[in-house]
Task: structure prediction
Amino acid sequence: MNDIYILGIETSCDETSAAVVRNGREILSHIISSQVRTHQKYGGVVPEIASREHSLHFEPVVQTALKEAKLGFDELDGIAVTYGPGLVGSLLVGVAGAKAMAYAARVPLLGINHLEGHVYANFLEAKLKFPLLALLVSGGHTNLILFQGHGDFKVLGRTRDDAAGEALDKVARALGLGYPGGPQIQQAAAGGNPRAFEFPRAMLEPQSLDFSFSGMKSAVLNTLNSARMKGVTLEISELAASFQQAVVDVLVRKTLMALAQMPVKTVVLAGGVAANALLRQTLKEELDKREVRLVYPKPLLCTDNGAMIAAAGYYRYLRQDFAPWTLNAVPGLSLA
Result:
């Protein structure tokens, strides 16, 4: 079988990324142009600025990815692109660019759901067997997904309000830690007592695998407001540690509940929050007790990146599941 080369394009939020992956596993090039510093002054991503930055960096990022991979457009087998969910302006830059390149190169266009792409970051790191359970934790999404095979999955649980990453961002902003919130909370929590504050752990209805982090976030904000009204100074490290512990407790408990309902031998972590050290450690300890394998990507592949999109595109290419030329950005795209 000949090698298959897929160019992956990711522009769903504030990273312009392109990567060339061979046979779904081998990263030949991986370029990311991050806008984090641009958006830090605003405390979060500004959609208008994000789409403009993508427009500026899209072409040089793609050209650099091809140059590092030592390939031309005529040597590609397909072009995969995120078409949702995400910021509509950002998505449109990537989709329009990918469509133009695929049409000109006469290769298939592969439309990738951004959430599915995050899960496929794990296929770049390890050889995985189905079925497997994925815990996807990012800024806008928290999902538990059962994968029976490529393209064959079922969403077992999803967030009903704030996603875990979104709650981390909002609490970090309230604590004056800046953006992005996840890494800032983890750093501030170092040395703090994770039981200093008892924040709620919303489990919802019995046996429900859905998530809710808005009450936890509100509890932190109420604690801060109450302290300010009383003129009391709270220790930031203890607030951060207690909140981080509460988030991790819910994520781990829900994952174990899902395993009880759908016993599998492999769990994969995905999304930006998958880089959290406490989440990785706690989940691994619990899964080791149950003789269940835990797989997670290196930190670079946890954040938005083109390599995960190329990996997902490879398996879609094998199924001949090509996107039409009418493919458009779908900011509210869901997994089911």
Notes: The CA atoms of residues 254 and 260 lie 10 Å apart. The longest strand covers residues 26-34. The two ends are 33 Å apart (CA to CA).
